[in-house]
């Protein structure tokens, strides 16, 4: 869904949301929000006891990537408690990721592309159970202290239309042609791996329009609209997810996916609203309830998150993760690639049961930063929304790496 990846978690610490139907003068026309069930709530957590983490390894460097933060060997994969159904989903997603996994550069310092070749060759024709596959070709490791925090995301479906209509007038924009990506590493070795986005005015590169300017109409009249949403709150939450479905008036569905964003920093307003005493329920549902009840104030709060997402229509499989492959509900997660290799399996043991088991790192997100920070994908539909919207679990995480990687790491 990505978003060069913008999959953002729907938890108190990472969530951002938009305003109600009040839009600045000259911007999008206000629309009437559709009726919603008054009992819309996050799913009730299923409690679980998380396995203890292992003693941490000594930090081997600056700790900015997994290899220098410290890595220790974990227990045997076959001895881990796993859900066999979810393990099978994870193995299938691992198989899907293999073509990119063996080619990509791993910025975590844990693996090299060739390390994955044996497992990727074997999974093509594997007929046994998933647990045995992972155990045969990989070993588990813990990065840092192994203490994991997991949130959730999903693929929302909101009301929309392909052409502007009365009551369906919130623009869904494609990438503007004047939005420029700059690889700073091309100018200085000290800036390798760092990128910025902006636009050129005269002879200067400046920041691109922020959310307030865009919602105020700065992109209007340029032919960038690929569709329209009925409700600004719904659309902003779709932006947080990075992709979603527009339910069209004729009953059809238009799927849209992340193309890029404006280069502005992401600000999660869940914590902001909590700190200001505006809400006590930091779930997605709690934040939405406040925004709908206080549309003018909600608009101002929303504009404190200057990041804005641009979309493209998806016509094939999807939604797509940062690797360019479809993400799968209850199998795919978004991670920080400095600490978890994209394509690697991850095992979670958390204080709520739903996220426990094996997942595949197939995505990234603007708010998903740090070691053992995981954003779990739950698919589409009411259950996915309910689980993702209230997901905030803590526990232990292990990463599965090829056996050759452990040998090179001296484990």
UniProtKB/TrEMBL annotation:
Coiled coil, from the record: none
GO cellular component assignments: outer membrane
Domain Lytic transglycosylase MltA: 157-312
Catalyzed chemical reaction(s): Exolytic cleavage of the (1->4)-beta-glycosidic linkage between N-acetylmuramic acid (MurNAc) and N-acetylglucosamine (GlcNAc) residues in peptidoglycan, from either the reducing or the non-reducing ends of the peptidoglycan chains, with concomitant formation of a 1,6-anhydrobond in the MurNAc residue
InterPro entries: 3D_dom (IPR010611), MltA (IPR026044), MltA_B (IPR005300), RlpA-like_sf (IPR036908)
Highest taxon, organism lineage: Bacteria
SMART domains listed in its UniProt record: MltA
Keyword entries, A-Z: Cell wall biogenesis/degradation, Lyase, Signal
EC class of the enzyme, as a word: lyase
GO terms classed as biological process: cell wall organization; peptidoglycan catabolic process; peptidoglycan turnover
One Pfam family here: 3D
Gene Ontology terms, MF aspect: hydrolase activity, hydrolyzing O-glycosyl compounds; peptidoglycan lytic transglycosylase activity
Region annotated Disordered, chain positions: 26-50
Signal peptide residues on this chain, from the entry's feature table: 1-19
Keyword Transmembrane helix: no
The EC number(s) this enzyme carries: 4.2.2.n1
CDD domains according to UniProt: mlta_B, mltA_like_LT_A
Name the UniProt record assigns to this protein: peptidoglycan lytic exotransglycosylase
Species, as recorded: Sphingorhabdus profundilacus
Origin organism lineage: Bacteria, Pseudomonadati, Pseudomonadota, Alphaproteobacteria, Sphingomonadales
């Amino acid at each position: 869904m990505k978003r060069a990846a913008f999959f953002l978690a729907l938890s108190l610490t990472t969530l951002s949301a938009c305003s109600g139907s009040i839009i600045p003068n000259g911007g999008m026309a206000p629309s009437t929000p559709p009726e919603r069930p008054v009992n819309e709530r996050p799913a009730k957590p299923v409690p679980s006891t998380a396995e203890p983490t292992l003693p941490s390894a000594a930090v081997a460097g600056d700790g900015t990537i997994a290899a220098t933060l410290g890595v220790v060997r974990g227990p045997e994969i076959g001895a881990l408690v796993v859900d066999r159904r979810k393990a099978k989903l994870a193995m299938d997603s691992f198989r899907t990721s293999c073509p990119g996994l063996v080619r990509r550069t791993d910025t975590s310092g844990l693996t090299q592309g060739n390390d994955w070749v044996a497992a990727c060759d074997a999974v093509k024709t594997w007929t046994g159970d998933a647990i045995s596959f992972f155990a045969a070709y990989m070993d588990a490791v813990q990065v840092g202290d192994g203490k994991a925090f997991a949130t959730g995301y999903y693929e929302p479906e909101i009301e929309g239309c392909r052409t502007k209509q009365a009551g369906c007038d919130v623009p869904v924009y494609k990438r503007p042609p004047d939005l420029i990506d700059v690889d700073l590493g091309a100018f200085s070795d000290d800036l390798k791996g760092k990128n910025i986005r902006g636009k050129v005015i005269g002879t200067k590169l400046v920041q691109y329009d922020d959310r307030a300017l865009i919602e105020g109409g700065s992109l209007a009249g340029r032919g960038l609209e690929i569709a329209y949403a009925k409700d600004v709150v719904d659309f902003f939450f779709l932006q947080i997810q990075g992709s979603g479905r527009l339910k069209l008036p004729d009953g059809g569905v238009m799927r849209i996916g992340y193309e890029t964003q404006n280069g502005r920093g992401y600000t999660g307003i869940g914590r902001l609203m909590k700190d200001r005493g505006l809400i006590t329920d930091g779930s997605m549902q709690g934040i939405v309830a406040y925004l709908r009840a206080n549309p003018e104030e909600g608009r101002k709060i929303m504009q404190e998150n200057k990041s804005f997402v641009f979309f493209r229509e998806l016509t094939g499989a999807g939604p797509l993760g940062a690797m360019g492959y479809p993400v799968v509900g209850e199998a795919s997660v978004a991670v920080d690639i400095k600490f978890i290799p994209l394509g690697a399996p991850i095992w979670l043991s958390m204080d709520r049961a739903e996220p426990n088991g094996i997942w595949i790192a197939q995505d990234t997100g603007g708010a998903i930063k740090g070691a053992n920070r995981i954003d779990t994908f739950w698919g589409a539909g009411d259950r996915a929304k309910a689980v993702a919207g209230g997901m905030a679990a803590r526990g232990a995480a292990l990463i599965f790496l090829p056996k050759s990687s452990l040998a090179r790491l001296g484990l």
